[in-house]
Amino acid sequence: MSYYFSTIMDCSVEEAVEKVTAKLKEYGFGIITQVNVQETLKEKIGVEFRKYRILGACNPAYAHRALSAENRIGLLLPCNVIVYEREDGNTEVAAINPKISMEKVGNKELSDFSCEVTEIMEKVIKAM
C-alpha cells in the first residue's frame, strides 16, 4: 500500500487547487494552510521552481478525535495534499494516505479511525 493517492489532471495548478479544495469541503475538510513552494523558493533562495502547492487539509472532528487519542499526533496533522505542475504540462494532485502514517504510531484507536479518513482522501483524489 502506498503512502499517497494521486491523479493527473489536464488543467492548471490553480484550477486543480480550486477543484480539490471544493471536493474536500464536501467531506468536511477545509484548507487551513497553503504553501506556495514556487514563490517560497524564489523569495528565500532565489531558485526557479515549477508551480507546486502544499495544502494542509483539516476536518475538525477527525482532528479532535486524533488529538484526543494521541497527544503528539499533531506532528502528523493536517492531512497534506500536493498540487504541482508536471514536466508534461499536466497537473498532479496527490494526498497522503493517513492509514500508513497513523499505523506507525501504534495506537489502535488511531489506526481504526484513520481508515475512515483514508477512504475519504482516496475518494477525493479519484473524483478529480
UniProtKB/TrEMBL annotation:
SUPFAM superfamilies membership: TT1751-like
A Pfam family per the record: DUF302
CDD domains cross-referenced by the UniProt entry: DUF302
Domain DUF302: from-to ranges: 35-98
Xref: InterPro entries: DUF302, TT1751-like_sf, UCP021774
Record-linked PANTHER family: SLR5037 PROTEIN (PTHR38342:SF1)
Name of the featured protein: Uncharacterized conserved protein, DUF302 family
